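Here is the promised in-class demo. Please do not try to memorize the tokens; focus on the logic of going from shape to residues.
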């Protein structure tokens, strides 16, 4: 059982817990902004190299081996040193002048490193002084201009894609957090208000500071209003209120953060992030954020297209076999819960004589008389799942992720298994970490489902593209020899 008490003596076990972890909070960016950030990281070295080569042409100099080597070195150095500039850290926290200062500072660091490399390799005597001066002066000017334009583009992309947030406990730090969220230039968060057990009169709240309810009402409000972000600013000590609050929020898909005071941050030695200078620590969060979200989605699209192209003849043959084998549709469409707990419809080749999608959906059992002869082969080899690559292209699913359960099963198990809904911090997958660890097929006991959920949550904590590839490899190896498939 997970200990949620937050006394200082409990911090080490909590940080090591499999269910409550202190992790780095991601920047609040959607996939469009993350793609722009990735492009910025690639454009910074391109700009530096472009200014160098165009400067050489403008001065009438030949592009020799020296210039090519210098351009390559400059690209590598700029890519390494301009990370914070590309991620927008300066202007998010200090405005336009902070951006200018960061670019100039990063460029001076890059120039210093390049000079050291040039001196060490003896290239300084072969490099044109006018070209060096032009390049050193013009590059930061061009970077400032194009980063300013990109900043405006990022603000435009985030407009209209706000995420909602609430704070638990009305404190000085939660007030500062609210101001930081409301004053953020990207306008990415709609702050709804506070939850506190004290009355508005006792707290001296003004009209602009909405008291949404007591701590006990937090989880219900988050569920009803589909709140995206919950910031907990309660004192970091053993407190039954925190335990009850976390238990309630386990049945939501909100991202939950602790907002510690500075004394706690100094003692903890944990990785934290900041929102407008206010430190926050993530408790539950999706692993797909920023560039990771772009990489995950790109890999899903690539693998889905390749799979559909490779298996299209087989899928046509299966569709004909399903249609001729028994009356009913070729595809079985069933309601499942997807990312954020949103209801989606997934596709499978029909393997049964029935298409159940109601409040009571019995799981398939060994020797289930509802399964057709062809359906038994399809289920044994997982070929009935092939249409879900279409769901991946639609953006409803991923190739790898927690397997989606029928809505009826979701509603049943979310009440019995703590943290069950955290599976929906990511898109459901065609295959998953639980399935390649022997937890595929029928979950006829609560312990089996609890084990499956534990593997799903472990996948969220450990996610990487390498892990996805490993899961796909193990899935392929299990297709024809998984005793749990029936």
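The designed amino acids, position by position:
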């Amino acid at each position: 059982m997970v200990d949620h008490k937050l006394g200082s003596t409990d911090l080490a076990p909590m940080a090591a817990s499999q269910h409550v972890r202190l992790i780095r909070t991601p920047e609040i960016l959607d996939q469009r902004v993350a793609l722009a950030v990735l492009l910025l990281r690639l454009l910074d070295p391109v700009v530096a190299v472009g200014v160098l080569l165009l400067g050489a042409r403008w001065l009438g100099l030949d592009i020799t081996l020296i210039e090519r080597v210098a351009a390559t070195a400059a690209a590598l150095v700029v890519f390494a040193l301009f990370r914070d500039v590309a991620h927008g850290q300066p202007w998010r926290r200090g405005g336009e002048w902070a951006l200018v200062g960061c670019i100039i500072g990063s460029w001076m660091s890059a120039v210093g490193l390049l000079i050291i490399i040039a001196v060490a390799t003896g290239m300084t005597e072969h490099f044109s002084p006018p070209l060096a001066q032009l390049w050193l002066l013009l590059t930061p000017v061009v970077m400032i201009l194009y980063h300013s334009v990109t900043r405006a583009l990022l603000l435009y992309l985030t407009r209209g894609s706000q995420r909602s947030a609430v704070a638990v406990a009305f404190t000085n730090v939660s007030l500062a957090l609210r101001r930081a969220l409301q004053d953020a230039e990207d306008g990415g968060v709609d702050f709804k208000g506070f939850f506190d057990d004290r009355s508005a009169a006792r707290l001296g709240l003004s009209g602009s500071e909405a008291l949404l309810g007591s701590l006990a009402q937090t989880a219900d409000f988050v569920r009803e209003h589909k709140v995206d972000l919950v910031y907990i600013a309660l004192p970091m000590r053993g407190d039954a209120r925190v335990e009850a609050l976390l238990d309630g929020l386990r049945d939501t898909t909100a991202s939950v953060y602790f907002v510690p005071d500075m004394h706690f941050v100094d003692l903890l030695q944990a990785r934290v992030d900041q929102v407008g200078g206010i430190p926050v620590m993530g408790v539950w969060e999706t692993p797909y954020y920023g560039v990771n979200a772009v990489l995950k989605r790109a890999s899903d699209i690539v693998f889905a297209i390749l799979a559909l192209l490779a298996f299209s003849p087989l899928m046509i043959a299966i569709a004909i076999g399903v249609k001729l084998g028994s009356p009913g549709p070729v595809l079985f469409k069933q309601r499942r819960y997807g990312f954020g707990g949103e209801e989606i419809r997934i596709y499978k080749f029909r393997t049964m004589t029935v298409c159940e999608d109601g409040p009571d959906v019995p799981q398939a059992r060994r020797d289930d008389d509802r399964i057709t002869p062809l359906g038994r082969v399809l289920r044994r080899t997982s070929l009935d799942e092939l249409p879900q690559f279409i769901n991946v292209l639609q953006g409803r699913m991923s190739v790898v992720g927690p397997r989606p359960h029928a809505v009826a099963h979701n509603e049943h198990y979310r009440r019995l298994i703590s943290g069950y809904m955290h599976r929906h911090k990511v898109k459901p997958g065609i295959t998953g970490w639980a399935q390649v660890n022997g937890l595929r097929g029928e979950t006829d006991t609560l312990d089996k489902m609890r084990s499956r959920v534990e593997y799903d949550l472990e996948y969220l904590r450990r996610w990487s593209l390498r892990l996805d590839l490993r899961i796909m490899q193990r899935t392929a190896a299990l297709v024809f020899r998984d005793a749990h498939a029936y």
